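TL;DR need structure tokens for one chain.
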Amino acid sequence: MSDAPWTIGRLLTWTTDYLKKQGRQSPRLDAELLLARALGCERIELYTRYAEEPDERTRAKFRDLVKQRAAGKPVAQLLGYKEFFSLKFRVTIDTLTPRPETETLVVFALDRAREVVAHNGAVRVGDIGTGAGPIAITLASQLPEATFVATDVSDAALAIARENAATHKVAERIQFRAGDLLDPLEEDESFHVICANLPYVGEREYPEASVDVRDYEPQVALVGGPEGNEIIERLIAAAPERLKPGGWLVCEASPQLMSPLSDAFAKAGAYEDVQILRDTAGMERVIAGRRKHFAG
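>> reply
TL;DR here they are.
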């Protein structure tokens, strides 16, 4: 077996086993994505090329990528992008990597925004803590009638978000602004929908996070306070003044935070129809509330 040629099929089998032993969560997918990058092809092409023997230069490039992945560097950063909602987003060490569970937030926000478009012909959306921009940009790609303001405390993340918006040809409809939560908004700005994927890891949880997260993603985008819910609760309290009557606040969080966040929505006294949504894994992942229809 040691004298067998290093075909694409053999490289994938060996690498999958190696990454599994290193504790990586999706070793086969990682192996396929990294080999496709080394070969300069799409991942789907690997399935018709199993018997092909890559040259030594390609194998060396692949070995280097695998070594970095085994050490914990996320595949998204090795590739330079992450796919989200069928769109590719550039990511770096300055941005949170888009995750599949955030699609639950996007689908709910998209439905609410389309309801507004059906009645008004246009919709205004805020994206608080935009990071690399996956929420605002994905919604913009689906809602040509919508305009957006996207905020973040990180100038470096906003630079990547602007680049992603330009790539997907929606930059002219998204204003990216630096600052904490709603602070960058102008005095008279209000929205039909406000989305937020804010930090929600507790300070005690953070040291236990996987190396992929702890060493390669910005702490400011992950840690939400001692318990994890503090930043989101500040937004829940402040958002009613920026929501149009009947407008929605839609927040992603961990399942463990749904109870205190539900209490925060109730304490604000300005919301109705508060809902908790499950992601594709069946976990409570998104909490949303609608601003009551009253003036002021």
